[in-house]
DNA sequence: TTCTGCAATAGAGAAACCATATCGCTTTGC
DNA sequence: GCAAAGCGATATGGTTTCTCTATTGCAGAA
């Protein structure tokens, strides 16, 4: 039954019998009959078929929620038992918004120092993707904005609040300023994150609140691209102060605080809400709480 | 794996391999090897053994929490799929504190009128037992006091607030009173619920708040016993108004409101907190919410 | 000590599982 | 239109897993 639910999850993710089977290390006929048995046991059709995968039925959609819960808990059970054998060990998968990547490193480094047997995978993702990955059991925790997110379904630990700064070449006209307003940036050649990133939407909102429209002549989903463009001289970008200092250091770039951007959006650790948490995850939450207090 | 977890749950409940096996409709060797395989898969010993069942190990204790969650969700999945086949049908098991039994009937009757294919089992239990049964998947919902209970782990719908009344024979010295104080009862021959009942603890507290000690010369865990004793003439008891009227009707017993007992403890429906609720349970919560509004 | 109740183990038959091979249908490309 | 390719269902057989009966081993009680 649990194996069948795993098959169902894989199928709903891959949307393709062959690939789903492959992802589980079984053959397509096995998955095909497995799903059929699951449907028989539940007495409902879960997947629409007509010589192709045709999406989930409404019942399948509902079942998917339960399947995720059940399979997720089963994995957490195994992990917790492994913990009681081997102590804190295993693999933590984090999905992180680009502007929080340095904090992810800080968090992971601190954690690793205490629990050297835990391996990390840190993926850069936008905030919507982060929550999808948590739902799909593809990541264990994330670093993302804590505002306007479906709280109640996740545990959160606030790490810091973003403050925005301008990054530009040292010979740029704005580089000498002690402070600058959002409205003064509209004349510059702006590099900004792509609109699927929440950071970009926040920056957009800040521009509009200052009465001007943000025009990004250059967009990327990578902050490295933004800063390397700025380093070519003609461009400017807006980044959270922390990340700006990290990326600009050693390149002689200027960093100018932006006025009225002081107590920005909260960023922190998010993890699926569970009662109780798995030991590794609990340790991560503790680590984050400690990091936030420094 | 799921089957193994069921075995584990049954064993932890029955504390005996043979009985646990019987309760699952399998033989003792099957359960024995099943549990061994579960332990092998998890790599941990879950049960202490030495030619006898010797209780759970600490790991087993932790695993039990997850097992309950997983098995419970699997059952809920099956039930929800059955719902999408057959509409609202099945079996609801309620555990109810004795003083709320009339409300349980009211709730079940209303629900049954709307959803005639749902069968009910209503058990009278004390409030501690109710929460144990919810945890152990032995009941689907309960009616109990909502104060000082582990909220957050349960969904609740308040139904009413208890007000306390004195029940006595019509020729009893107190029967003619329009109202009475707690302190005036200490001279009477009191029948009260047993101390494991939360209602009794509330009554005790009310007595003590009035400056006197409650002395129950007769205790029972059944309100029927209390009232039938009162009907013999020499005794009095304290019951919530609703139940007092129900049990005393037709017996010529007197019911006297007790002063200062006005907005008493909240009583309502409690159900395991789940996201989302199963359709039958959701319908029950809706029914309770409606009943509360009348 | 013997007896009794409990859980583990052995062994055999049944059931479930999973892979290879293949079919039927749909879509795609020419 | 037709051939080719992609996709999922089905058939079949070998292997594993499951679960039963029968039995053994062990500890506490008489």
Structure report:
The structure is a homodimer of 294-residue chains. Chain A is of the alpha/beta class and 294 residues long. Chain A is 45% helix and 22% strand. The first copy, chain A, has three domains: 2-79, Arc Repressor Mutant, subunit A (Orthogonal Bundle), CATH 1.10.10.10; 87-161 and 266-292, Periplasmic binding protein-like II (D-Maltodextrin-Binding Protein, domain 2), CATH 3.40.190.10; 164-257, D-Maltodextrin-Binding Protein, domain 2, CATH 3.40.190.290. The first copy, chain A, contains ten helices and twelve strands. The interface between A and B is medium-sized, with 29 and 29 residues. The structure holds a DNA duplex (30 and 30 nucleotides).
List the helices and strands and how they pair.
2 copies of one chain form a homodimer.
Chain A: H1 2-14, H2 17-24, H3 28-42, E1 47-49, E2 53-56, H4 58-86, E3 90-96, H5 101-114, E4 118-124, H6 127-135, E5 141-145, E6 154-161, E7 164-168, E8 190-193, H7 198-209, E9 216-220, H8 223-231, E10 236-240, H9 241-248, E11 254-257, E12 266-272, H10 279-292
Parallel strand pairs in A: 3-4, 3-5, 8-9, 8-10
Antiparallel strand pairs in A: 1-2, 5-12, 6-12, 7-10, 7-11
Chain A binds a DNA duplex (30 and 30 nucleotides) through residues 16-18, 26-30, 32-34, 36, 49-53.
What features would you highlight for this structure?
five-stranded mixed beta sheet; D-Maltodextrin-Binding Protein, domain 2; 45% helix; alpha/beta; DNA-binding; 12 strands; 294 residues
